[in-house]
Specification:
Chain lengths: 282, 163
């Protein structure tokens, strides 16, 4: 195992161009889990990006968008008052990633690149139409996060690319929430999660988390919410849930549980906020 | 951590408990391995090795982090504080409130508790209970821990000592 330690982005991209087999590390909070026994991981070579933190961990505001740096941590966002006021969905999600000790190290870009279908940062970012800026020594491109993943832990990112920024459009949201079900409130990996936003300009975004092999937009549910169809109970969402995804069975939960609970947490979250659903109780 | 295949080393230069530490290390060491096995700072404990229990909590540039999830090479240029750096006096309230029973979680608990006490602004981002959620304790049922952190914050506030 060796670790290369670039001090700036150009140096990092040139090291990666020379050795595309290098695995980039930011916070390391996923990579280092059970590290002493992970012999496979300890044979690889790494590109440690953490020495670029000072210049690459900002939150930059423009009139129409805000950009997170590639090394911006959850805690950087949680402690940014302006970010908290404008994107509470991202703060709520960030505070549910592990606990403070993880939130101070884990990065939004790392959450994207790790590609886990149970990530909590990714669904919240997808629900606010985040775009991923990628760069290699050859050039740069921008991929909308909802088109980033191509399969389980697979994405359109190339091995010689690094995330250089995550851009989020600024909009007036009428609704934004992230809900997750885990075994306990903190330090629990998501069994079922949903991130939802609504703005008058762009309509509904519904993103499912831990339901399928990838975190994904739920277009049938978005269409249902945009329609005039009455939604009076969780079961009224099931047709659209089934059209959007085939839930997975895994060590944390079953497909049947995920399907039923997804519809329930979405319904009750909407009802709590008194949006879109109709209830007899008013 | 032994690894027969390792031949290369990587230099690091950081501050640990106020002292400069410059040395060549094995790139596969975690910060926890460096502290415990090579610097004799055995306060931080390895509990779960996966970032859940918090027994290995240290502060990196002022913020609590799991030292089992940080490569030692990533400590380069950082200011690391372990439980050994704390003033025992600052722990009195935790002791009085029954924060400790078996003691396995205690080094991590007091590092996070001391961070909250010295950074009361952190309470804008969550309750004491939620900020302490990364330190698992199998003995106390947590109420003693929460009470101890609250008492130490109140004592700090009454003395005007929030530095």
């Amino acid at each position: 195992m060796k670790i290369l330690t670039p001090s700036n982005l150009d140096e990092a991209l040139s090291m990666l161009a020379d050795e595309p087999a290098l695995t980039p590390i930011a916070g390391g909070t996923d990579l280092l889990v059970h590290w002493p026994g992970n012999l496979e991981a300890r044979k690889r070579d790494y590109l440690d990006l953490s020495r670029m933190r000072e210049s690459q961990s900002g939150i930059v505001w423009d009139d129409d968008r805000v950009t997170l740096g590639p090394l911006t941590t959850y805690w950087d966002a949680i402690t940014d008052d302006r970010f908290k006021a404008e994107f509470p969905i991202l703060i709520v999600a960030a505070r549910q990633v592990g606990a403070v000790q993880i939130q101070t190290r884990g990065t939004w870009a790392g959450n994207i690149c790790n590609g886990s279908p149970v990530a909590d940062g990714v669904p919240a970012l997808m629900a606010v139409d985040a775009q991923v800026e990628l760069r290699s020594a050859k050039g740069s491109e921008t991929i909308p996060l909802d088109r980033f993943y191509t399969g389980y832990k697979q994405s359109r990112m190339q091995r010689d690319q690094l995330v250089t920024g995550i851009t989020i459009p600024r909009r007036e949201y009428t609704t934004q929430f992230f809900e997750k079900v885990g075994s306990r409130k903190a330090q629990a990996i998501t069994k079922v999660g949903v991130a939802v936003t609504h703005s008058d300009k762009t309509g509904w975004r519904v993103v499912s988390n831990a339901m399928a092999a990838v975190i994904m937009r739920c277009e049938a549910i978005e269409a249902l919410l945009s329609s005039d169809t009455e939604i009076r109970k969780p079961e009224d969402l099931l047709g659209a849930v089934d059209a959007d995804m085939t839930p997975i069975d895994d060590l944390r939960s079953t497909a049947a549980y995920r399907r039923a609970v997804f519809a329930r947490i979405l319904f009750h979250a909407l009802r709590e906020r008194n949006v879109r659903v109709t209830t007899d109780a008013g | 951590m032994p690894d027969a295949q390792e031949t290369n080393t990587i230099p690091i230069d950081c501050t640990i408990n106020g002292e400069r530490v410059a040395m060549d290390i094995n790139p596969s060491w975690r910060l926890l391995d460096l502290l415990r096995d090579h610097l004799g700072l055995t306060g931080a404990k390895e509990g779960c090795g996966e970032g859940e229990c918090g027994a290995c909590t240290v502060r990196i540039d002022g913020l609590p982090a799991n030292s089992c999830l940080v490569l030692a090479a990533q400590a380069h240029g950082c200011n690391i504080e372990t439980v050994e750096s704390l003033d025992p006096e600052s722990l009195g309230h935790l002791h009085e409130c029954g924060t400790t029973q078996c003691g396995a979680c205690t080094p991590g608990v007091v590092i996070t508790a001391d961070w909250i006490r010295n950074n009361p602004d952190s309470l804008e981002h969550g309750s004491i209970r939620s900020l302490m959620a990364g330190n698992l304790c199998r003995c106390t049922g947590y109420d003693g821990i929460i009470d101890g952190v609250r008492a130490s914050i109140d004592a700090g506030a009454s003395k005007g000592d929030r530095s």
